Structure formats: C-alpha cells, structure tokens
Amino acid sequence: MTRLILSTSNIMTGGPSIIRKPGADRSNLEFTNSLRSNFLAAQQDYSPDSGSNDNSPDGYEEDSVTRPQASLWTTRAGSDYYIPTIDWSMSGLAEEPSQYDITVKLFYLPGAGIKDRAQHTKDAVELVLKELGVDSIDLLIVSFPGMSFEGDCEWEADKKNSQQGNDEEEIASWLVVEELYDQGTVKKLGLAEFGSEKLSRFLSRVRVRPKVDQVNVKDCCNVPPPLLKLAKLESIELLVHNDCTNILPSGTLRELLGQGVRGAGVLSESKRGLDGMKGDLTPEWVVKYTAVVRDRGVIENKGYFAAAELRE
Questions:
Q1: What are the Cα distances from residue 143, in Å, to 13, 85, 167, 173, 192?
Q2: What is the pLDDT of residues 198-234, one digit of tens each?
Q3: At residue 288, what are phi and psi to the nearest 5 degrees?
Q4: Nearest 5 degrees, angle CA 56-CA 305-CA 272?
Q5: DSSP 8-state secondary structure symbol assigned to residue 89
Q6: Residue 14 vs residue 196, higher pLDDT
C-alpha cells in the first residue's frame, strides 16, 4: 500500500490578497486547478527541457502530451509518495507566528476508513504545521461526509440536516481533535454543516465543545432560525462558506493523476499502453489552510494537502 500526498504549495503566488466575501466559486475548483498548476510547475522546474509547449493552456499539446518522468518531480519516502516533491526549505511564514490567524479545515472523505480518522487528522495537521513553520493553529474546522443544507427553505434544510451523517462516527472522530486541543496544537475547534438538531445532540456528548459552526446555505436560503437561536445560546460563531463536502471524488483524483492532457501522468493507462502506478485508489482526506496577517487583514499563505491510498 502506498500513500499519495498531493500538495498545491502556496496558491497566493501573486502576493497577498485582501480578504473578500465568499463568492460563487466552489473551493473544489480552486483546489483541483491549484493542484494542476503545482504539478505542471514542478514538472517544468525539475525538467526544464521536457518539451512542454507553452501555447497549450496546460503547457502541452493535446495530441502529443510530453512529460518528464514522474520520478524527476515526485518523491518516495518509505510508503509515502509526494506529488509533487516538497522543498521544505522553502516553508514558513514571513513574520512571527504570533502575527497570524491560522485556520485549517479538514475534510474527511467518503470511502475512507472511519477507524483511520485519528491518524489522518494527525497527519494532516502535521503537514500544515511543517508547511507553515508553526507549532500551533488557531482554528481547526472538521468537515464530515454526507452533510449539507439543502431544501426549498431554511426550515426544510435544517430538518433534512438532522438526519444526515452518523452521530456515533462523528463523536468518535472528535476525540482526536480534542486531543490536539489538549496538547495546545489547536486553540479552537469547529464543525461544518451542523444544523440545530445535529449540533444540539453533538454538544451534549462531547467534552471539548466547538466554538465555530461553518455552514453552506447556497442550496437553500438563509441560515435556519433554529440554528441562529442555538448558536447564540451556546456562544457558537456561525460562519458561511462555499466549500464542497466531497472535495475530491475518486474520479476527479484519477483524472488529476492520469495520462490525459490535463493529468499529471502518474497513474498508468493500459488502453494506451502508458506506464505508471497501478492499483485501487481511495481518496482519504483533504486539508485546506489559510494564514492571515492579523494587523493587515491579508492572506499571506493559503494552500491544500490531500492524501489517498493506492493499493497496488
């Protein structure tokens, strides 16, 4: 078994941007496009004479895809396979960690083992800490699969939400984030897509309570009034977001790593006789991180890591 670790590097390559209100773009598009850009940049950096064609949108002609060997721009470390290679010497923030608000959102993906979530959480947070060169993060938001706010109105959306997910699995998974909180690695905890009934049940059973509930109301109308009331009563901050819960479907990952014109050429394609890694591919988690300079209100560093299991 091989663990694939995908990374976008810092996507704020054009310099820090003023924080804007959430727009219409879905973050899975930002995520997948950033991965493609980072793969292409690594291929060009590690093999500048690879024969790329800059006239193509992705640097390659559609009818003649030419890439450097994956071994030139990726790295294997034991059972871990980094796509692309990460130069940790370039990691870190420009100022002292105390000058930043660092928010991390961890997406547990459908299909990944529930029993593995504790290790997945630790691995994801460790990668972010190493990338940013810090010892702790300010807010960790956890997103469980199968959660949403969908309906003709906010009341219906809140009612549907109460039956989504799996309470027992979510509470069991929360233990590891409580552990990170106890260690001081995470200063504040949060959830995503929990309506009033789900949140009320959750609060009654956990030791360290979430301080944030992040909701996506693009498929209904407004934040449900029962949730507003509960959040005010329990001193929970409600934040609106536009992320996708299933941010990395298996088909999307295969396309990203495959032999197509927009793929990285890491996975094999038997139909065209193109060599590469073979096996069953299961996306496990995605983590999104943002470092905001407190006194200037700008994003200095933003990026994603993702992990998948490849059973060869």
A1: 27, 27, 13, 11, 5
A2: 999 999 999 999 999 999 876 556 788 899 999 999 9
A3: -115, 130
A4: 45
A5: G
A6: 196
For 174, phi then psi, to 5°, come to -70, -20
Which residue is listed with tokens 């820090």? 16
Helix 225-234 / helix 196-203 crossing angle, nearest 10 deg: 30
Alpha-carbon distance 53 to 164, whole Å?
Answer: 47
- Output the CA–CA distances (angstroms, integers) from residue 151 to 157, 230, 307, in the order listed: 5, 20, 32
Q: How far apart are CA 157 and CA 219, in angstroms?
A: 9
| Tokens standing for residue 135 | 């010892």
Burial of 187 by CB count in 10 Å (0-12 exposed, 13-18 middle, 19+ buried)? middle
CB atoms within 10 A of CB 150: 14
Cα–chain-centroid distance for residue 294? 23
Using DSSP's 3-state secondary structure scheme, residue 129 falls into helix
Residue 292 parent element (H or E): strand 280-293
